[in-house]
Protein: Aldose 1-epimerase
Organism: Providencia huaxiensis
Amino acid sequence: MQLTQEQCQIFRAPKVIALTNQNGMKIILSSLGASWVSCILPLVTGKRDVVLGSPNMAKQMEQGVYLGSTVGRVASRINNSQFTLNEQRYQLANNQGVHCLNGGKHNFSQRIWGIFQPTPQKAIFSLVSPAGEQGFPGRLEVEVSYELTEDNQVVIHHTYQSTEACPVNLANHIYFNLAGEDSVRTALEHDLYIGADQFLPTDMDGIPTGEWHNVAETNFDFRQSKRIGRDFLQDDVQHRVGGYDHGFILNDALTDGEQTVATLGAPNGDVWLNIATTQPALHVYSGNNLLATSGKTRTYVPYSGVVLATQFPADAINHSEWGEQYSSIAFPQQVYRNQTRYQFVF
């Protein structure tokens, strides 16, 4: 946590910052939710924005689908907004029925983060979450950095530490549409590869059942690239949540932050996105609930974009049987770091 007090100050209004590289690629970030709000690729056919986002900051503050936001303290769902840690029961703020989704009612996506730009191609966002916020224990300090490289990678680093043992599962809730955020082509028309042998089925509320299922001979097998829509809504597991909204357990050998764990391809094959991460899971969300959401150039509807969020598995705090590798618990006075790389090929 290197930022000075001055650099970490929280501004009253959201700030917007742009990072560019020598190829003409540009990403736009906002201090509201430490969000990635635009990703403009300089294609031979013209500039293309491949990230869904709000038309302005006022609409960004109103929307409830986490467009481009950093979500936390805990991404995805916590069953019944409860967990037990060190023999103490914690009750969290619920914001999806009885469950806690993406950190609760006033989560990180709705906060104004401090912002600091050390170089023209890097931005660092910082936030302090006080002890007891949304029911979580401990004071949590968080940094999220974005860096745009000359080889068209967007590298996101999360760094955090807590004063007490606490679940922490930060994720970037970015909706990609590689055909363009203004395109009528949907997430279902994209090709997807995931280096995962297992996935987490859920109940109708999107809460993992606790089981890990092998993807073999299921509609969740993306070990060979295929159209997202090919096996879409072809089973009860998907019907429960209206499509894909599930965690995939990434193969251990791939999660070194360098190897590709997932690849997304544009409908006509002119843009590819390769993802590398140190995180153990990938949550795939096919935009099932993008209902009349105000976008930059149009109104988004279901499946207008797909989220590929690297993170710990959902509700891990309530499943110690999954093992330490998949535990989201941050222990006091330790600094935790993870990294995800989004490599654009065009």
